[in-house]
Design goal:
With 364 residues, the protein is α+β, with helices and mostly antiparallel strands. The protein has 12 helices and 8 strands.
């Protein structure tokens, strides 16, 4: 038990700040659709084929346009992505009629973008994902080991939102008692978040729902090869074909090929899908607009469908305000537990007791 306590304290002191910042940034992102505050964010969704097709043709005709994330019920603006020389990170928000509301040349001009980048990559791309994945596994260890360590002090349990005093004993007692209350919520946040970062961990978690190998194969995009991107792709024809394939689905993401020969990709969300951007996907030949293939998310293996539920649970994209409040409590608890763990470990460590050695009196 002493070894477990030492591991819990040292890993908390080293990784607690990362978890605290992830909890805080994640909580802020739960409400981004409310604080962005641009004209049109609250507009009702106009998802009919004619409106979406006309707007898509207009937006994708803009110089450097590489893709669009379509508006949905929670956020009434389309988000554009631009590419080309000097346009890395550039984008824009547009109304559902195709009028540009605001543009940016870098993610640092939009707080929701750089907060998202921090929460998912720590501003460090794939390397940051590895750090977050390790922190997620450490967080899982904290929850389990913390529950074990709390059991021996359960008789002193007191529910406090804040430590009684900012002394190390009070902070440690508050940390243990708040941790045991928040443990179920933290498990949900940590498990779902780590699933999205560490694929091996995700495959272990979805194993009860089906073959991990089949799930991994179903999630990976198929390889299609087509012609070079046409000068004026017929987006209306593509959207029409997509609506015929998935009649009740919403248009979610349109992406142009990143390199020659790759297809144009269109993601859609069927009504039964939890994932806000859906996994029902069509691929089109970039030269001709011909449908190369389609994937129905509702027919994917059980393991793949379980994996698709991780993000909507983690980001409270399901469950309405009730679940958003639950995940808010989880994020705030992680922020408080992580920050106090670092504070008590590095700045409120007990001072070593000085041993007083009495000298023996010489005989007289």
């Amino acid at each position: 038990m002493k070894l477990l306590d030492t591991l819990h304290r040292w890993t908390g002191g080293l990784i607690g700040l990362v978890l605290a910042l992830l909890g805080l940034s994640g909580t802020i992102l739960l409400y981004e659709h409310l604080w962005i505050g641009l004209p049109g964010t609250g507009d009702p969704l106009r998802g009919d084929l004619a409106t979406v097709a006309a707007t898509t043709e207009k937006l994708m005709a803009m110089p450097g346009a590489q893709g669009v994330i379509f508006a949905d019920d929670r956020f009434g603006l389309h988000q554009m992505r631009f590419g080309g020389q000097g346009n890395d990170g550039a984008g824009a928000y547009a109304s559902q009629s195709g009028e540009i509301v605001t543009r940016w040349t870098s993610q640092w001009e939009r707080p929701e973008l750089w907060i998202f980048d921090f929460h998912h990559h720590l501003f460090a791309g794939d390397s940051g994902e590895w750090v977050i994945g390790i922190a997620g596994l450490a967080g899982l260890f904290f929850v389990i080991s913390g529950a074990i360590l709390w059991w021996r002090t359960r008789k002193t349990f007191q529910l406090r939102l804040w430590p009684k005093r900012m002394s190390r004993p009070s902070i440690v007692m508050h940390h243990r008692d708040l941790g045991i209350i928040a443990a179920p919520l933290l498990l949900i946040s940590i498990v779902t978040g780590t699933m999205m970062i560490f694929r091996p961990f995700a495959l272990v978690m979805i194993a009860p729902f089906g073959s991990p190998a089949e799930a991994a194969k179903a999630i990976e995009p198929p390889k299609y090869t087509g012609g070079a991107l046409a000068e004026k792709p017929d987006y209306t024809a593509m959207l029409t074909a997509a609506r015929q394939r998935f009649p009740d689905a919403e248009f979610r993401i349109l992406s142009l090929p990143r390199k020659a020969g790759d297809p144009i990709m269109l993601r859609m969300r069927q009504q039964a899908e939890w994932l806000p951007n859906g996994r029902s996907t069509l691929w089109f030949d970039a030269a001709t607009g011909e449908v190369l293939g389609a994937r129905d998310a509702l027919t994917m293996p059980g393991g793949a469908q379980a994996f698709n539920m991780a993000f909507p649970i983690h980001a409270s994209k399901v469950g309405g305000w009730t679940w958003r409040i639950v995940m808010t409590l989880s994020g705030l608890a992680m922020t408080m537990l992580g920050s106090f763990a670092v504070w008590s470990f590095w700045f409120r460590r007990p001072k070593p007791v000085k041993r007083v050695v009495k000298k023996a009196l010489a005989p007289t």
